[in-house]
Design brief:
This is Pseudouridine synthase. It is an enzyme of class 5 (isomerase). The protein is α+β, with helices and mostly antiparallel strands and about 400 residues long. It has helices spanning about 5-10, 15-25, 120-130, 150-155, 195-200, 230-240, 255-265, 275-330, 330-355, 360-385, and strands at about 5, 30, 35, 40, 50, 55, 65-70, 100-105, 110-120, 135-145, 160, 165, 170-175, 180-185, 205-215, 215, 225-230. The strands form four sheets. Strands 7, 8, 9, 10, 13, 14, 15, 16 and 17 form a nine-stranded mixed beta sheet that branches.
Length: about 400
Amino acid sequence: MSEKLQKVLARVGLGSRRYMEEVIAAGRVSVNGQVAQVGERIEPGDELRIDGRKVQFQIEDEIRRRVLIYYKPEGEICSRNDPESRPTVFDHLPPIANDRWVMVGRLDINSTGLLLFTNDGELANRLMHPSNEIEREYAVRVMGEVTPQLKNNMTNGVVLDDGPAKFESFSEIGGEGINRWYQVVVKEGRNREVRRIFESQGLKVSRLLRTRYGTVILPRELRTGRWMELDKTDIDNLTKAVELKPRQGTGLFGMAKRRTERMQDKPMAARRGGFLRQQRRDNEGEQQTNHNEQRDYKAGSNQYGQNRSENRADQRNERSENRFNKARSGGNHYNQDRADNRGNSFNSNRSENRYGSPQNRNRSDERYSNDRRDYSDRQERSEQPEKKKPFVVNKGFKKF
């Protein structure tokens, strides 16, 4: 069975179909050594090269069809790459060998809920095409009162910038006060279609959650930011809705099946907070930090100024007291008399302590007599001749 060349290259993951058509038109692709043309078909066993490098491929019917459901959180964008480096819905998907995930439909950065991913490009295209009229169900929280007249307008149809649009069904599901929840269904996937329908009636959407896409319903056990792979029964129901034949080998086996069963029994915790929510928390934390720093700086500056003023006052008082004492005592005469008194008292006290008391005098006499006795003993020992020791042969000495 043959297949279009640009479709095969896009499924391998080298780019979109439109980009692959541009690559083929530039003469960069060859099949069996011949430069390929746009629209050319390829069969199993053909040699496919792009820029001289061989590309391994499989015909679509031979590939096992896989479908993922993902609970998109607020703040993630539906794109593979973002020039602003924001998180994308592809960041947390499991890798797939020699293939790529194709997103079915989109949700804006502020919306949450069900997203489908598949490795079957034809299935994705049929699920998104308006001619197949695949239903998308949303839970919407609206700020404002929805009167019966406004409800009839939105279900009968309103005119938007890109054409008429309407809700296939509209029902209230709860809420209190000014914010109320409604459940709506549309059969198209135009950009921000649900929000624009409400805005055309002067209503503002504060939250938007996709709960169903075709036959796939967002399961209760799936938490925000987590994914789950569908089994054979759910995939076959999707393909039947868009009139595609089921494939052999479709479904979960081994560890993948056990993982899904374990998630149903014990759901994984939600990944708390999207990009926007985390950004708000960071901004609030920075503002609080700056406020605390400013408060601490003001308190420290006030305390520093207070301490500095107190030190200046103390120094001023001390200088004034010194001046007063100098003037009172007569200036230089007072200092000179004070120095003389200090020197005389010191010398007299020192002499009295050294020689004045009888105890000190007796101690000095004893020290003098001991010194004389030691000197006389040393002199007598020096006058006596030194006795020489006789020569004795050591016991261990041997004569030769």
